[in-house]
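TASK: fixed-backbone design
INPUT:
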C-alpha cells in the first residue's frame, strides 16, 4: 500500500535499538552455551561437555533371539500339532 509521498509502508519500519539487539544476542548465547555436544553415533551415545555430571544408564542384555516370544509360540504350536496326530 502506498502513502501519499510514494514510499511503501514496508520501508518505514523501525530499526531495532541496541537494547533489543543485546537481549537477542544474550538469549542466543545462553542457548548455545547450555546445549551439550552429546551425539548419537551407531547406537552409541558419545559424551557431552557435562559427561562427569551425567547419570549412568544401564541397559541389561536382552535375549539373543529378538523374536523369543514368537519362537516359543511356534514351538508350542508344533508340539500341540504333533500331540493331536
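OUTPUT:
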Amino acid at each position: 500500500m502506498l502513502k501519499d509521498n510514494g514510499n511503501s509502508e514496508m520501508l518505514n519500519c523501525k530499526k531495532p535499538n541496541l537494547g533489543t539487539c543485546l537481549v537477542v544476542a544474550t538469549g542466543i548465547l545462553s542457548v548455545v552455551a547450555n546445549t551439550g555436544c552429546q551425539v548419537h553415533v551407531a547406537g552409541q551415545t558419545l559424551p557431552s561437555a557435562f559427561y562427569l555430571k551425567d547419570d549412568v544408564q544401564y541397559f541389561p542384555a536382552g535375549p539373543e533371539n529378538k523374536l523369543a516370544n514368537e519362537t516359543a509360540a511356534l514351538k508350542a504350536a508344533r508340539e500341540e500339532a504333533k500331540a493331536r496326530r
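COMMENT: The chain has two helices and two strands.
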